[in-house]
Amino acid sequence: MAAARGWAGTPYLWGGNTRSGVDCSGLVQQVLRSVGVSAPRTSAQQAAWTIRIPAAQARPGDLVFLGSPVHHVGIYVGNGRMIDNSHPGTVVQERPLYRGSFFGRIPS
Where is each NlpC/P60 domain found (predicted)? Predict the structure, then answer.
């Protein structure tokens, strides 16, 4: 969680994956890279890569997805909250889960 929280305040940039600007899947990819995990780039690819789990089994560090097809991803922090960056004009921040979210666990 420290790696994800270290991105707090980074502005949204579609397709971005640097501290100058990052989108939702770029944030997830960079946070995972910082802890030694190589993840796909887009939210849809990340959803396909993870193992879907029931909400009752979600734990901090699992990924949170939204949409069908998937169009958004964040990192679960627990207690119904996630870290993400959602759209232009926002920054990486912790927020409540979106209604309709589902969870994926990073494969070992």
Answer: 1-108
> What is the sign, positive or negative, of the torsion defined by CA atoms of 38, 98, 3, 62?
negative
DSSP per-residue string spanning 33-80: HHTT----SSHHHHHHHSEEE-GGG--TT-EEEEETTEEEEEEEEETT
- The partner residues of 22 in beta bridges, in order of sequence, read 12, 17
Upper half-sphere CA count for residue 90 (Cβ side, 13 Å): 14
Instruction: Write out pLDDT tens, residues 30-65.
Output: 999 999 999 999 999 999 999 999 999 999 999 999
pLDDT averaged over the chain? 97
- 86: pLDDT strictly greater than 90: yes
Residue 33 φ then ψ, to 5°: -60, -40
* Residue 108 pLDDT > 90: no
